[in-house]
Amino acid sequence: MSREELLAWIPAGHPDETLARQISFDRLPAHIAIIMDGNGRWAAQRHLPRVEGHRAGIDAVRDTVETAARLGIEVLTLYAFSMENWKRPAAEVSTLMMLLKRYLRSELNTLLRNDIRFSVIGRMDDLSRDIQDELHAAIDRTASDSGMLFNIALNYGGRAEIVDAARRAIESGVRPHDLDEQRFADFLYTAGQPDPDLLIRTSGEMRVSNFLLWQIAYAEIYVTETLWPDFRRWHLLEAVQAYQKRERRYGGISPSPAVASAK
Ligand code: IPE
Ligand code: IPE
Ligand code: MG
Fold it and tell me: What is the DSSP letter of 195?
């Protein structure tokens, strides 16, 4: 999409307008991945049960998905439930699943309207039947959308993904000496997708928590103190702007001699 597309959606004079005008649309991250964290703390600050934080987090998901699509981001991946999150109390897990189901039902039309293709990464087969059905329905309904790809990481673990990829590689019969990084990446859940350029984590935690371990090799990491339920368009634009000020080197040297000598 474009600056115009984004600005058309921001009320004139709104503070987000200034930020939107500062974004360089020719240098957008192709893939943004987000570790949505801090729902529990958001609820605790309000003396509410943790699940109220998850409930409030849905508004942040909605806003982020639409902002990313309007910005023209190619792939957005949201970490919604890790394989380790099964350790949480059963009531919290079932509320998270119920909220996911409700989100899919209520947002399907928004996804379709914005030409967003929905996809799941993670061990989907281990989720309950009704959740799988709901996910498959959203995947099928949006399959021909050609705009942003929206991956939701569910029952996802980065190490498990690498193990699954290794199993698939073996099953495919690929010969060991033919296997290189590119071939291996084709067995990951994210096969064919660009690696995340920008990894955002909310709520200030400085860790990766088993997310996209292979794919984030050279991602720019942006951690904000903002708790996930408070995350909105403005925060995403701010993260993209910060990303655009970074210098990516991939192990090389600075492309600009002026910058290199200033260091
Ligand atoms: C993120 O918020 C949501 C999920 C992991 C599903 P948390 O529930 O981890 O919130 P905190 O980290 O306890 O504040
Ligand atoms: C990471 O958050 C998982 C998701 C956002 C789904 P956690 O809250 O589970 O991570 P840790 O336990 O703080 O590392
Ligand atoms: Mg957390």
Answer: P
